[in-house]
Amino acid sequence: MKVEIFGSTDVGLVRDHNEDNFVLCKDLASQDWTYKRDEQFDLGPLGAVLFVADGMGGTNAGEVASEIAQATVDEEFKKITAMPNGDQAMMDLVKKVIVKAHQNIVHRTHEDPTTAGMGTTAVLCWVVNDKAYVAWSGDSRMYLYRDGAEFSPITDDHSLVWELVKAGQISPEDARLHENSNIITQSLGDEARPPKPDARMVQLHTGDRVMLCSDGLSGMVSDNKLAGILSGRLSTAETCKELIYAANDGGGTDNITVLLLDVLDGNAVPAVTRPESSSASSTGGMKTTIGKGAVPINTVASKSGPGKGLIIGIIVVIALIAAAAFFVLKPGAGEGEEAGLDSLGNPIDTSLTTVIDTPVTEPLVPIEEVTAPVSAPVTTPSATPSAPNNPNRPAPRPGSISPPGTSGENPGQGTQTPPKDTTGSIRNQLPPKDTSKTDKPRGLTPINPPGGEPKDTSKRG
């Protein structure tokens, strides 16, 4: 399977430092943890790894928690030399890596009490052959964009408002704009409530776009607008840049991280002949409709050729024309018409005679093959992509987008300070206390619990 891969992170327009971290390993078999702009390559036998960690904790070192998670993913995947046996084993492995990252974060808080209370969300995707195995804890997300399919997250946020979405009480867009959208029910780093990651497997096809992101993107940009940008089919790197622009244009109140893997050459998208029966599947709630190349079930003509009735009708018409031509051109025809007699001198029965005003003078062209048009495939229109150079859009802060160089760096390797951009992580000195996001125990459903506001332990988005 041929793919293209890229990633970028940005501090946003409000924060003074970046607590996000990410991992991109384009070839696990050769331990190649680098990536380049516009580089197309065949996926190796052990696939590629994508990971996003969104640190939280403010003065309690949220960026340290996300960095520990990043380092854990590096360490655990470098141990892999062979594929686990079966899809379930693959999903179990990516979940175990997230749990291991949680344990390492807790261990650090024991060594350094000043980091107590730090945590991070995580979303991890292992792409092998034509499948993506994803595990997550918190509200960092994975999306799959596919032409002709409904666009929605593959992952289900571990958050208070997403529980309301799953219960049918509010819409995903309502959840995005909800005042309590920052309250999560699961994360890495809380020793009293260890995470229980969820996992899914997604089948990939040619044209698919796999996107991982922190909520700095999904919280600022609606799913409809995300789909519009992804449908624009800019290059992988340019699409990442446009997505970050959109998040900053929407307010840029949080750090923004986005990773993108484009499937350039893989398995064809299967034709779906009964779109009316589409339903949520193992791809995490994505509803499939007719895609490109699909043939609708109720087409009048078949690709195998014209129907029998059409052929018979043509034959009958040809026979009638030939018979009429024979009688018109027969010798002696018309000699006794004025007298009301035929060529043998018999009276003409006008009640049974069809008069042909213009005789057929040109030879008939034999019909070698009769074909009928096939109805064009039905495709679902995509949202119009946002213009990459909108003069009315506020320009991002200097250095907010990954530099237009030819290579990316693995985040966490080297220190950089904002606003200078990097395709890896940005680590600065510890910031002042940030109380923008709250990690709350699972199972809480009321938005405003009786007795007061939910406890705020400073979850950074």
Describe the structure.
The protein has 461 residues and is α+β, with helices and mostly antiparallel strands. The chain folds into two domains: 355 residues, 4-Layer Sandwich (Phosphatase 2c, domain 1), CATH 3.60.40; 26 residues. Helices cover 23% and strands 16% of the residues. α1 packs across α2.
Overall domain count: 2
Number of strands: 12
Mean pLDDT over the residues:
73
Low-confidence stretches: 272-310, 332-344, 348-436, 440-461
Number of helices: 8
Q: TL;DR of this structure?
A:
With about 450 residues, the protein is α+β, with helices and mostly antiparallel strands.
List keywords for this structure.
single chain; Phosphatase 2c, domain 1; 23% helix; five-stranded antiparallel sheet; 12 strands; alpha+beta; 461 residues; 16% strand; 8 helices; 2 domains
Ordered list of secondary-structure elements with their pairings:
Elements: E1 2-10, E2 20-25, E3 40-42, E4 48-56, H1 62-78, H2 87-111, E5 119-128, E6 131-137, E7 141-145, H3 160-166, H4 172-177, E8 183-184, E9 198-203, E10 209-213, H5 215-218, H6 223-231, H7 236-249, E11 256-265, H8 308-329, E12 438-439
Parallel strand pairs: 8-12
Antiparallel strand pairs: 1-3, 1-11, 2-4, 4-5, 5-6, 6-9, 7-10, 10-11
Helix pairs in contact: 1-2
